[in-house]
Amino acid sequence: MQIGELKRNELNQAMASRILILDGAMGTMIQDADLKEEDFLSSTKGNNDILNITRPEIIADIYRRYIEAGADI
């Protein structure tokens, strides 16, 4: 069994046992990071996905805070 299949099984089990909500206000968390224009590549200004490359520590910190708050998905 591959990892993707294992994760899918875990997700299916979780969905069978409780209501799952996937919403973390990622955009708001990114806005709170007080990023500068330099954090985005010039052609991708406003594209938050590019922050995974230019500022991965910001994105990792946001997800770490979700986990600390109790997120388990």
Plain-language structure description:
The structure is a single chain. The two termini are 20 Å apart. Helix content is 53%, strand content 0%. With 73 residues, the chain is mainly alpha-helical. The chain has a domain at 23-73.
Task: Give a quick set of tags describing it.
4 helices; 73 residues; 0% strand
Q: Low-confidence parts, pLDDT < 50 over ≥5 residues?
A: none
Structural class: mainly alpha
Quaternary state reads single chain
Q: Bin the helical content.
A: 40-55%
Q: SSE string, helix = H, strand = E?
A: HHHH
Strand content: under 5%
Distance between the termini: 20 Å
Rg for CA atoms: 16 Å
Number of helices: 4
Summarize the structure.
The chain has 73 residues and is mostly helical.
List the helices and strands and how they pair.
Elements lengths: L2 H15 L8 H7 L18 H4 L1 H13 L5
